[in-house]
Structures are given as structure tokens and as C-alpha cells.
Structure prediction request, 358 residues.
Amino acid sequence: MAATIKDYYKILGVNKDISPEGLKKAYRKLARKYHPDLNPGDKTAEGKFKEINEAYAVLSDSQKRAEYDRAGTTFEQFREFKDFKGTYDFAEEFDFSDLFGTILREETYYSSGKDILVGVELTLEEAFRGATKPISITRTINCSKCGGGGAESYQRCSACKGTGRIQATKGFFRMAQSCPKCGGTGKKNISLCKGCSGKGRVIHTETVKVKIPISVDSGSIVKLRGMGDSGRGGGPAGDLHIEVTIKPHQIFSRKGDDIYVRLPVTFGEAAMGAKVEVPTIDGVTMMTLPAGTQGGQRLKLSGKGFVSPRTKTRGNEYVDIKIAIPKDIPENAKETIKTLESLYTENPRRMMIEKGDN
Prediction:
């Protein structure tokens, strides 16, 4: 009974009409997932890693892929097509030991820098108007002496002639891989840079002025692109993320685009009605209290809240009325208060008591 050749397309999880770019993307995703260095001691992952590299070595080469597609799916057909003698063993002919470090080496020598997260605290007024705040950050940057290369001087790698890649032939297969001599950089360090001790990057602390837009709220993130840690091997720098926290305010509270304030008024202002001054986030305004205003009643000042970042319209300010009672009442005023008490035709707590009894 003829042995069956592995379905390389199925191994990589792709269709037969996959493009070279799509094939490479699928391969890299699986290679990162099953790399032995990321799965130490996991024999299943190691076997899977060998298998996907075997599949990619054939399908990534247009000539070998065409031969594989034409040969059919059985071992006998494939051997007859290539006119092989004796037994053909993919595992014996293809050495994967030099592939285990390829992906991690590429990520080591060329990778994006990490993002940085810092916090900034604003007053409610700064959040309303927007602000420019100085923020101190510590990040890695490319060494100015070596430009991030890590060496004072280089020479071209003799093994790959500066390309960073070499062609390796393993039995039937021929493939390109990172040069093991230079780690894929294409050059060899002659002497390490004294400024960074060969690391290519140095720790740097600086103060940057960050423009905070209007109407930010606690938890908002302001992002500065390219202000994170520098990348390796010419990779792009990460971003700086600034998380905003709003300090508690003595007068106002905020919910979304709306502002809330508790306003003390006198008994006479509430009973008779009056024009009273009300603090708002952008100054003092006048508000009319209707006669008979009750303690705890909420009034609205339209358009006195925060500007909505989406609609560009302002929210509202809600004013909660609090009746202020004098602490020290002279004897001659107590008779007047008793007269006012006689104006209550029923117990103001009657409805609450009746509901509590049910």
C-alpha cells in the first residue's frame, strides 16, 4: 500500500490558491505559536514546528510548489515523478535544527519598540478648557554614537556578503534562511560601542509638553506616536500613552458631558422666588428660582456643561436646590417662624408614612 504524502496546504491551514504573501503570513503565525523556544519541553509543539517548516519550505518555492502540485498525493507518485531510487524520507533529508532560531532572531534584530504608559492629573477646569502639561518620561532611544547598531565599527559579513540571508540546500530542498554568522544583520561587529556597551540603545529621561484636548475624562488616553521605546534593528519606535485622571472638585461633579452642583438658597428665595447667582464651569451666571421651589428640586441650565467631542455641542448643568436654615435664631424671630408653620395645611411627610405602613 502506497504511503501518503502530507498535505502541506492543510498543515499551514491555507487553500491551494493562497498567494505567496498569504502563505508567508500563515507560516509566520504558526511558527511563532509552535516555536520550541516559546514552548520549552513540549514535544508536540516541536513536532508541529518541524512540520510547518517542512510544508513552507516546499510551498514557498514556486518551482517546488508546482512540482508538488503536479506530483499528486501519494508517495509512489511523487517518487516516480522525481525518479528517486529507494526510500525517500522527508525527515531525514530535511534538517530543521538551523531553523529553530530563525524567527526569534529576526524579531531580536528587527522589532518594534514597546509602548509606554504614564499618567497625568488634571483639574476639572483644565479638562474643560484643554491644557498643555509637562510630562517626564523615561524610555530607551537609539544610541547617538553608533546609531543603534551597537558597534563602533563593522565589516561586511563574509558568509552572506552583507545580505543577512544565505541559501541552504537540504537534500531535495533549497531554502533561504537568516545567516547564522551575523544573525541576519549582514554585518559583523569589530568593536562594541562604548556609549551603549553594544546594546544599541540607552536609557533616556526627558520632559515633553503634551497637549491635552478639551473635554477629556478620567480614563481617557492621549497617544503620542513614536514617543515610546525605540525599535531594534531599525524597527519603528513604540507610542507614548498618557492616561488622564481628573481631580475631585470642591463644587462640581461630572457625568459624561453634564455637570452637577448643589446650590444653597434661603427659605425666602425658595418660597417667594428670586434671581440667584449660580457658579458654572466657565463663570457665574444668573438663574431664576420659581416661587415655591422645594429643597432637593433639580433645575437645569442648558448648554453649561462640557463640549461633546463627538457632537461638538455642550452638555447641561443640573442645579440641586438645598434650603439653607440659619443656625442661630433669635427669640423675636421664632414667632414669625411659628406663623410660617401654620401655612402647612398637612404634614409634608404624610405620603411617606402612609407608604411605609403598607
In short: The mean pLDDT is 82. The radius of gyration is 37 Å. Residues 43-59 form the longest helix (17 residues).
